[in-house]
Amino acid sequence: DSGVTQTPKHLITATGQRVTLRCSPRSGDLSVYWYQQSLDQGLQFLIQYYNGEERAKGNILERFSAQQFPDLHSELNLSSLELGDSALYFCASSVDRGPYGYTFGSGTRLTVV
Amino acid sequence: GDSVTQMEGPVTLSEEAFLTINCTYTATGYPSLFWYVQYPGEGLQLLLKATKADDKGSNKGFEATYRKETTSFHLEKGSVQVSDSAVYFCALSDMDSNYQLIWGAGTKLIIKP
């Protein structure tokens, strides 16, 4: 157990639908990062939140949004889903800026049918 | 901007063979360097890291030395096991990246018994 909790582990939904992925960071970590990993293995950075505020944005589609709540958990909302959105979605957390690296959750596997 | 280049996979080896996965980086500052491992069906785990030149990170029999002169952080293991089969990611972070991890594309390692 890495200390980063992601739910659900698996999600199957239809095209056009909307889903919410949830992440609880490791205790004491203030930053949350969201990544998408497709079948070709590469990690695509989506967005980062720090202590409730958006800090950095990657290649996140307009159909996707995220937020971090006062208790530091984060949610990634994916709407108007397309087949191509099928992927693994990872959440990671870190303390703050610095050479600490990230702690990853085990991911949510999203399948859009 | 900062970037990380890893050798392309898959890398296929026999059990007990010597492993090297090459990683080179481009950075204007003094980055910290990381190796993460992703076992099948799991999230990424920090394998080892080094925060300054000539540092050697080590864990689970894996080693990597931060070589500033060659801007490299190659991952090595003297005798691999089937259980080492995974995808390995090299990454860096520094002030220029706002301490976000900049990722290599990942190298899939397959160990045959």
Key structural traits:
heterodimer; A: 113 residues; mainly beta; seven-stranded mixed β-sheet; four-stranded antiparallel β-sheet; globular; B: 113 residues; six-stranded mixed β-sheet
The fraction of residues in strands of chain B falls at: over 45%
Count up the helices of chain B. Answer: 0
Please write the string of helix (H) and strand (E) elements of chain A: EEEEEEEEEEE
Structural class of chain B: mainly beta
Number of helices of chain A: 0
Strands of chain B, total number: 12
Oligomer: heterodimer
The secondary-structure class of chain A comes to mainly beta
**Beta-strand residue fraction of chain A:** over 45%
The residue-averaged pLDDT of chain B reads: 94
Taking the sheet with the most strands of chain A, its summary is: 7 strands, mixed
Q: What pair of chains forms the biggest interface?
A: A-B, 22 and 22 residues
What number is the mean pLDDT of chain A? 93
In one word, what is the shape of chain A? globular
Helix content of chain A: under 10%
Report Rg of chain B: 13 Å
Distance between the termini of chain A: 30 Å
Describe the structure in your own words.
The complex is a heterodimer of chains A (113) and B (113). Chain A is mostly beta strands. In chain A, 0% of the residues lie in helices and 51% in strands. Chain A has strands spanning 5-7, 10-13, 19-24, 31-37, 43-50, 53-57, 64-68, 74-78, 87-94, 103-104, 108-112. In chain A, strands 2, 4, 5, 6, 9, 10 and 11 form a 7-stranded mixed β-sheet that branches. A 4-stranded antiparallel β-sheet of chain A has the order 1-3-8-7, with no helix packed on it. Chain B has 113 residues and is mainly beta. Helices cover 0% and strands 50% of the residues of chain B. Chain B contains no helices and 12 strands. Chain B has strands at 3-6, 11-14, 19-21, 23-26, 32-38, 44-50, 56-59, 62-65, 75-77, 86-93, 102-103, 107-112. The model of chain B has no long low-confidence stretch (mean pLDDT 94). Chain A binds chain B through residues 2, 4, 33, 41-43, 45, 48, 55-56, 90, 92, 97-99, 101-107, and chain B through 32, 34, 36, 42-46, 49, 51, 87, 89, 91, 93, 98-101, 103, 105-106, 108.
